[in-house]
Amino acid sequence: MIPTAQDQVRDGQPVRVPTPPPVAAVRERIRSGARLSVVNGVNELEFGAMGTRCRVAFGGGGAGASVVAGAVVDWVATFEARYSRFLPESLVSQVNAAAGGPWVALDEAAMQLLGLCGQLVYLSRGVLDPTSLPLVSLWDWKRGRVPTDEEVEAARLLVGWRRVQLVPGRIRLPKPGMALDLGGVGKEYAVDQVILMLAGMGVTSALVDFGADIRLLGRPVDGRAGWKIGLEDPLDPGKARLQVVVREGAVATSGGYLRGFEVGGRRFGHILDPRTGRPVDNGVLSVTVLAPSCTQAGMLSTALYVLGLDEGRRLLDSTPGVEGCMMTPDGLVSSTRFYEHITT
Hints:
Blueprint: E1 7-10, E2 13-16, H1 23-33, E3 35-39, E4 42-49, E5 52-59, H2 65-83, H3 91-97, E6 103-105, H4 108-123, H5 133-136, H6 149-156, E7 165-167, E8 170-172, H7 186-200, E9 205-210, E10 213-217, E11 227-232, E12 240-246, E13 249-255, E14 260-263, E15 266-269, E16 272-273, E17 278-279, E18 286-291, H8 294-307, H9 309-318, E19 323-328, E20 331-334, E21 342-343
Parallel strand pairs: 2-6
Antiparallel strand pairs: 1-2, 3-4, 4-5, 5-9, 6-8, 7-8, 9-10, 10-13, 11-12, 12-21, 13-18, 14-15, 16-17, 18-19, 19-20
Helix pairs in contact: 1-2, 2-7, 7-8, 8-9
C-alpha cells in the first residue's frame, strides 16, 4: 500500500492517522438539550448522550454548579464523538473503516479504553466481545428481522477479540468486515471518569446515572448514610421490584426485557450471546451488580445475564468485592450478602 496524506510509516507498516472526531457538533447537540436545576438543595444536571438519558446529581462544595455542569457536558461530548460507532467520523468508525487495511494510530486515552477490552473478554469468560458488531448488525430490532443461520455463521467468522492487533499507539482489524462496538464498556467507563472528574473539581457528593449505570461519590447531601436506588421490575417495567441502599461504589443493571421484538410468538431481546450469535434466551430477566467501579459492575451485570443462572452465579460468587442479584420469572437469586443492601 502506498501511504496517503493521512498515513505514516512506523516499523515498516502503514499507520493511518485518524481525522479529528466531530466534537463540536456533538457538544452543541448535548448542550441544546441539557438542563440544570436545583432540587431540594441538590444540583440536577440532565441531558441526552450516548443514546441514553444522563443524570448527574451533585453538591457539597467545589466549583460553581454551572462550571461543573459545563465540564461534564464537554467531557461526555468529547467521549461520544470519539467512541460512538454511530458517528461516521468517530475514532471507532475510522478504525472499523480501515478493517483489513492499515493500522490506525491511537493516543493514550484511546489505548487506555481499548486496553480494557481485553480484560472485558477475559473477565466475562468470552461472552462480552467488543468485536461483536458484525453479529449485532444482522439483527434489526426496529423492523423485527431474524437473520438466517448462514448469515449468523458468516458473521461469527469476523468476531473474536483475539484477532485484533493492538500494540502501544496503534490498532488493526486484520479482516475486512471486522468492526468494534464499545457499547459493553464505554458508557460505564464514562460514568467512572465523570465521577473522578467531579472529585477533582472538589465535589464531595454526587450520583452519576447514565442509562441505569450508576456510580456514587460520598454521601447524599441530606446526610443520609447511603444512596437509595430502585431496581426496576422486568415483569412490570417502570415500577421498582425492590430498593437497595448503597454507601459507595457503583450499581449497574442489564437485561433484554425493554428492547426487542417478537416473531412467531418468540421474543428476541437486544443482548446477544457472541458464542451463538443470537439473543440471550436463558430465563434470566435482568441482573444487577454492586461493585467498586461502574466499569466492573456493568461488565459483570451483562456477563451474568448472558451466562445464565448457573454459570452466572458461579462467576458472581467467585468475584471478590461485588454483590448482585439475578431476576427470573420464579424470583430472585442473589449473592450471599446482597440482601444486606435491600431496604423498604
